[in-house]
Write a structure and sequence with these properties.
Layout lengths: L6 H11 L3 E3 L1 H11 L4 H14 L2 H8 L7 H8 L11 H11 L3 E6 L5 E5 L2 H10 L8 H10 L2 H11 L7 H14 L6 H14 L4 H36 L5 H29 L3
Parallel strand pairs: 1-2
Antiparallel strand pairs: 2-3
């Protein structure tokens, strides 16, 4: 029975689930190592054989990365919750209704025209739908504050982030509103909220004092790594000149530069975030 479900959300979920997914070269490499598939041809044969046999577990393992919604997916479907409050059992009804359609999807490989056509079994559909966290409510006060502080273009993303498990219980459920005020004191940047949510999920501090202490330690770690990578960049110059003759130097330096830039970005976000948190 799907009478309690908005038809638009069923349609949009079907469209999203059947959208072609791209398997990255790194993802293909990892799968190939695990399943001993030497190239895309063997990978294609492997997936098609698993589909033919109805091997749900292995297909779930292969497809899970491509069917994990990101914050933009969650934000899009979060917009339906302005006019629909899921009742107990509605999420399973969504999954059952989609599974009954016997959906299929094309998998493509980056930098290739080759495609694999595979069925979407219920466990893959369930993974995607449950991870949208449509049944994770937001407190009325938090929704009101989001409406007051966050520009319309970012509001659904912020709501989706606050539906993350870490904000649904414990001290962070109670602290969500003061934290959002603190993050919006100067200029709200969603990168800080994403960083904080990931940090809370990974480190599980018990209270604000513990969060501030751990965040200060992480900032020190970023500083140490930046100094190390900066020193490496200076020492690398002569080595790069030497190795440029065999073509390896430029690639190595590019990877080190990427690491350095990432550390600097994370250091800047963490530093700004710590300043905000200390104002609470």
């Amino acid at each position: 029975m799907t009478e309690s479900l908005p038809p638009q959300i069923l349609q949009k979920l079907e469209e999203e689930l059947t959208r072609e997914r791209i398997v990255t070269s790194n993802q293909l490499l990892g799968i190939s190592r695990h399943y001993s598939a030497a190239d895309f041809g063997e990978f294609k044969a492997l997936v098609e054989e698993k589909a033919r046999l109805g091997d749900h577990l292995d297909l779930f393992m292969i497809l899970s990365y491509n069917f994990t919604p990101d914050v933009n997916d969650r934000a899009y479907f979060s917009s339906f919750l302005d006019s629909w409050t899921p009742m107990p059992g509605d999420i399973q009804k969504l999954i059952d209704a989609l599974a009954a359609k016997r959906l299929e999807v094309d998998l493509g490989v980056a930098e290739s025209n080759l495609k694999i056509h595979v069925p979407l079994f219920e466990d893959v559909i369930g993974r995607y739908v449950r991870n949208l966290r449509l049944d994770s409510p937001l407190a009325g006060t938090l929704k009101k504050v989001i409406g007051e502080l966050i520009v319309e273009e970012e509001a659904d993303r912020v709501k989706a982030i606050f539906r993350d498990e870490v904000w649904q219980a414990g001290p962070w459920k109670e602290l969500a509103v003061p934290i959002l005020y603190a993050l919006s004191h100067k200029r709200f940047r969603i990168e800080k909220l994403i960083y904080l949510t990931t940090f809370l999920a990974a480190n599980r501090p018990k209270n604000m004092a513990g969060l501030v202490r751990l965040m200060a330690e992480v900032i020190e770690s970023h500083e140490t790594e930046i100094r190390r990578l900066d020193k490496g960049a200076k020492m690398f110059f002569n080595e790069m000149l030497r190795e440029s003759y065999d073509g390896t130097g430029a690639d190595r330096r590019e990877k080190e530069d990427e690491k350095l830039n990432l550390e600097k970005r994370q250091y800047a976000i963490a530093g700004a975030l710590l300043e905000d948190l200390r104002s609470i």
